[in-house]
Design goal:
The complex is a heterodimer of chains A (about 120) and B (about 110).
Chain A lengths: L3 E2 L4 E5 L4 E7 L6 E7 L6 E7 L4 E4 L2 E6 L4 E6 L8 E8 L11 E2 L3 E6 L1
Parallel strand pairs in A: 2-11
Antiparallel strand pairs in A: 1-3, 3-8, 4-5, 4-9, 6-7, 7-8, 9-10, 9-11
Chain B lengths: L3 E4 L2 E4 L5 E7 L5 E7 L5 E9 L2 E4 L6 E3 L9 E3 L8 E8 L9 E2 L3 E5 L1
Parallel strand pairs in B: 2-11
Antiparallel strand pairs in B: 1-3, 3-8, 4-5, 4-9, 5-6, 7-8, 9-10, 9-11
The chains are: A mainly beta (about 120), B mainly beta (about 110).
């Protein structure tokens, strides 16, 4: 039962263009969402997050959009750079407090390749 | 430099043997986590601990055990009961409460059981 899905295993983009990575979820209890970035042979690093009370959060070149009715979120990277080439994971949590704090459910990941 | 250390980077074991993976952090974080990653799959939570001497099962705890005797250490034992132990294991830590979603990960240990 995959509660967080990234249906595109890979994405290839030209440098300077926009990269759009998508993520769908099924659990209506999820209300906090994050994107992590992972380079080969390293652990993931936190990139950006969004709470369900918002529909957009921006941090420099990275913007996350949340559509709660569609249970869909996306990460936009503008402009894309070759250094952005990595695996991107979306993650979700019920934010229910107590022992649920920090309990993340991850998607399968999308490999982004940005060509010079 | 603050961070998370996992050792060793590669680990090989024979089937039927228990093996313990090390995770140490010097970030002064209260919460620590263990994840497993398999090819084509996301990270799956094995165990997590929000405070010393306390831990909770994640989504795939069967065949694993943990201890949290010190704030900076959260070792994971892969027991012989784990049916498919070969995987990439990641340890993470975070502050407690609402900041716990922003987790800091170690470099991982790749375990191969034959």
């Amino acid at each position: 039962d995959q509660q967080v899905k990234q249906n595109s295993p890979s994405l290839s983009v030209q440098e300077g263009r926009i990269s759009i990575l998508n993520c769908d979820y099924t659990n209506s209890m999820f209300d906090y969402f994050l994107w992590y970035k992972k380079y080969p042979a390293e652990g993931p690093t936190f990139l950006i997050s969004i709470s369900s009370i918002k529909d957009k959060n921006e941090d420099g070149r990275f913007t996350v959009f949340l559509n709660k009715s569609a249970k869909h979120l996306s990460l936009h990277i503008v402009p894309s750079q070759p250094g952005d080439s990595a695996v991107y994971f979306c993650a979700a949590s019920p934010n229910a407090g107590g022992t649920s704090y920090g309990k993340l459910t991850f998607g399968q990941g999308t490999i982004l390749t940005v060509h010079p | 430099d603050g961070g998370i250390t996992q050792s060793p980077k590669y680990l090989f074991r024979k089937e039927g043997q228990n093996v313990t993976l090390s995770c140490e952090q010097n970030l002064n974080h209260d919460a620590m986590y263990w994840y497993r990653q398999d090819p084509g799959q996301g990270l799956r939570l094995i165990y997590y601990s929000q405070i010393v001497n306390d831990f909770q099962k994640g989504d795939i705890a069967e065949g694993y055990s943990v201890s949290r005797e010190k704030k900076e250490s959260f070792p994971l034992t892969v027991t012989s009961a784990q049916k498919n132990p070969t995987a990439f294991y990641l340890c993470a830590s975070s502050i407690q409460g609402r900041g716990s979603y922003e987790q800091y990960f170690g470099p991982g240990t790749r375990l191969t059981v034959t």
